[in-house]
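Request from the bench team (R.T.):
"We need a structural guess for the complex before ordering more coenzyme A. Sequence and SMILES attached. Just send the tokens back."

Command: build protein-coenzyme A structure.
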Amino acid sequence: MDKFEIRPGTPGDQEEMARIDLECFPEEPWSVEMFRHDLEDNPFALYILAEDPEAPEGEKIMGYVGVYLIAGEGHITNVAVRPKYRREGLGNVLLRILEQHCRLAEITSMTLEVRPSNDTAIRLYERNGFKTEGRRKKYYENNGEDALIMWKVLDPQK
Ligand SMILES: CC(C)(COP(=O)(O)OP(=O)(O)OC[C@H]1O[C@@H](n2cnc3c(N)ncnc32)[C@H](O)[C@@H]1OP(=O)(O)O)[C@@H](O)C(=O)NCCC(=O)NCCS
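Reply to R.T.: structure attached below.
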């Protein structure tokens, strides 16, 4: 990963983001329409994208993180980094930038769901200060796996 640029997701990104989801969440990818809705019509949704400026058009997005900002809480929808850009710290960078945006929006806590089997993601979230606070039974439709519910309180002093 030589260089990357960070920008918010905007209408028009939905097709590339849906292709990333096919790579990152083959079991339950979001559709183009789900991303289109969030990017165009959902005032609560915010996406942060990392782009490889040297990649060809249509393949520039390296990864993204999304959040719904509702009633002072940031509900993370997904964190996804394309396989060829993984294990270089990009997931960590995206989460940290997302947290900065949440703080600017006066969000006081962030939450997400994660599969208990997803060790890499759980470690990433724990490194970023998230703690497991609960479990949703049979949350994932494809295999009936539970979800861990993780939270991070955003202390304005830190
Ligand atoms: C989870 C995910 C977003 C992590 O993205 P990433 O960019 O690889 O994340 P990071 O590089 O910040 O950290 C991942 C690992 O790489 C390691 N790493 C980071 N920089 C590194 C470097 N320069 N050299 C070697 N390893 C490095 C980290 O220590 C971490 O290791 P660990 O898993 O053993 O703790 C990515 O694996 C992914 O998209 N997975 C599929 C989708 C998914 O499961 N998303 C979460 C849903 S809740």
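Two things stood out. The domain at 5-113 is CATH 3.40.630.30 (Aminopeptidase). The chain is about 30% helix and 30% strand.
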